[in-house]
């Protein structure tokens, strides 16, 4: 008995497209299931992220400065305007925007860093007259700092230790000689303050704030100074 030949079943074009689409979805799903454990998404940091060397949420005493400094150059070369929303900080890059929160009355103000200071133990920021008025400050206030964005020159910092500021240049020279015997380099930089021209004595140049802090501790332990403030030079 000769069997009849079995003809292959013909599928319509619509059926073929349906089968092809189903296979594609199945293969794609398999590929995704295989690859998913291998996908690693790197963390994305905003361009204004705060570097590890800059303390976020710093708390301390805020003071302010005004008429005696108005119209004189700040540390970054800008002319100080006590009616502008600016401030002085010892280590934040110039141009950094900082929100200052008054922990006593709940007010806040946004300022731009364009000067260095304050050089008084326990104080962390020196506000312009306008910024102090906006916070409702009469003298000093307990504040918290939040860095909103870094300045345009917030690259590698150069740090030093300020150990004195004198109206008499001879006193500055004597301190420089005493410290220079064991530490260095020692620099004398001038600054036009409210009471005249000051001669600031600064020791060392470091690319990390940790190195400057270590030197400050050494100078204090050696009784070569009674004050040692880490300050960013750029």
Descriptive account of the structure:
This protein is an alpha+beta fold and 234 residues long. The chain folds into two domains: 91 residues, RlpA-like domain (Barwin-like endoglucanases, Beta Barrel); 74 residues, Sporulation related repeat (Alpha-Beta Plaits, 2-Layer Sandwich). 24% of the residues lie in helices and 30% in strands. It is built from four helices and ten strands; from the N terminus they run αβββββαββαββαβ. A six-stranded mixed β-barrel has the order 1-5-2-4-3-6. The protein is globular. The N and C termini lie far apart (102 Å). The N terminus is likely disordered.
Keywords:
Alpha-Beta Plaits; 4-stranded antiparallel sheet; alpha+beta; Barwin-like endoglucanases; 2 domains; 234 residues; disordered N terminus; 6-stranded mixed barrel
How are the secondary structure elements laid out?
Blueprint: H1 13-35, E1 59-65, E2 86-88, E3 97-102, E4 108-115, E5 123-128, H2 129-135, E6 141-149, E7 159-166, H3 169-180, E8 186-193, E9 196-206, H4 209-221, E10 229-232
Parallel strand pairs: 1-5, 2-4
Antiparallel strand pairs: 1-6, 2-5, 3-4, 3-6, 7-9, 7-10, 8-9
